[in-house]
Amino acid sequence: MSWGTELWDQYDNLSFHTQKGIDFLERYGHFIRDRCLIEMEYAGKLRRLVKNYQPKKKDEEEYQYSPCKAFKAMLCEVNDLAGQHEVIAENLQSDVIREINYLVKDIKEERKKLLQDSAKYVAMINNQVASLERSRKNYEKAFKEAERALDNFQRADADLNLSRAEVEKQRMNMAIKNQHCEESKTDYANQLQKTNELQSQHYKALMPEVFRQLQELDEKRIRNVRHFMAHSADVERNVFPIINKCLDGIINAANQINEKQDTILVIERYKSGFEPPGDFPFDDLSRGGESMPLIMPGGNTFVSSGIGAHRAESMTVKGTMSAGKLKKRVGLFAIFSSNKNNLSSSGDKDDYSELPPNQRRKKILQKLDEIQAKLHQEVAAKDGLMKMKGVYESNPALGDPMSTEGQLNECSQRIDKLNSDMTRYQGLLQEVECNGSPAGSRKYESNTEHNGIGNGSTNNISSHNRLNMSIPDGRAPLGEDESLSRSASDSSVSIPAVGLNNRYPGETVSLGASRNSLANDEDTPYYDIHDLPPLGTCTALYAFEATSEGSIPMFDGEQLLIIEQDQGDGWTRVRRQPPNAEEGFVPTSYISIHSS
Predict the structure, then answer these.
(1) Residue of 554, 555, 558, 559 whose CA lies nearest to 537
(2) How much is the pTM?
(3) What confidence score (pLDDT) does residue 89 get?
């Protein structure tokens, strides 16, 4: 079916129909545009919702419970869902709306050109028909004038009163009119033939071609509308796997909720450690308020000493709902007390003496973990400064070695302060545990020599393994100080370190646990460096000549034992194979480390 043959006379209707089709395509584009806006708005509102319900810093302690953790995980998944709606909007914007705009522009231009051609063809046929009408009218006029001239001639020829000249004049006029009539007739015939040919071409070739192109243009529009609708659905379907993963994440988060575990967390958080109060004793008023033993059913014996006297301060039920009020009142009445120096920045006592035993123990353990983390950072910083100073002393062109003295002194002071705090809180922890602590609780060493960190050690011991453990085979406890001489230029600073030969099951020690320490104190004990166990093996890639104290030469292909990994300064501590067992530093880039 073709518009050119079936709708040859529906030019105006086809022009109107194609315009309506373009209007629909634009309307569909506006629909997709508005949907993108809705998707972006929905995504933005989801993100704001997630932001508004993110846990505040003051509520972080509450988010240790499984429902709160699941809710936090769900917020992350909802935030990812918002991202997928943004992806839908972006893909619709780039793949659909832009293509629709291009298509509308092309269809409008093509339609305009085709309508201009059809208007030109219509104008041509109309002009030809008008010419035909003019020639027909001329022929009709000439024919009437010829008939009139013939009638005049016949009357003159029949009239005997007219002279011969008058009759001849009428005859000549008749001949002229007949000739003009024939010419008009010929012109009319030619115009008619030309008009018929043009009309046939107009309705059988020119206009059908225009209609065919309009039909193709309209079919193209319809075909693209179908494609845009399907592609819009595909854009949304493509994010379904990720959306399903987000929903699966929410379900997994919900499955992680464990009411029994939360019950244990509540007990650990609020358990005071106190024993429940005993029964009230019998106060015998007949004996002047003196305490007297009273045998109650069940065999319990009580001594009467007054109900008020029986309630000792140590028997108060802290950790209950009233504990918060007691704590606040203590802070209120202690504003003007002389013990304000014992308060932390949050207003609580830094020894946590106002807390129940179990809660106090938890706070002290947290404080010890915090101090140890800071101590590790300070020790790492000090060790870096030591290496920098050694580099400056071996090559003065790189910097002044004395420029690090101030920073080293500050770092040593901070380490001393942290060690002091560590000792203090370990004493507090022992005090709490000596007063009675739950069985199986972890204990910190009371001596700083046994806490795993000295003034400069870099061993990384897990906080869950800092237990008061027994040491088998009579070996030294973890944390025994060692003093290894690295270079004479480092003799101004002392950094004791932890020996790696004292490892026990359950410990977590970093590869840098065998860091050297430099001693300026003659009393510092010397530790045999050959006792340090190797961390791995390596092969020398290039020959190296030792140019500074503390480094050792090596030849290409030599097999060495790794004693200390590179700490970021480009040097690795190695040891030769026995029996030589020479030990020192080599460039890390000159060796190939074998994975264990």
Answers:
(1) 559
(2) 0.50
(3) 93
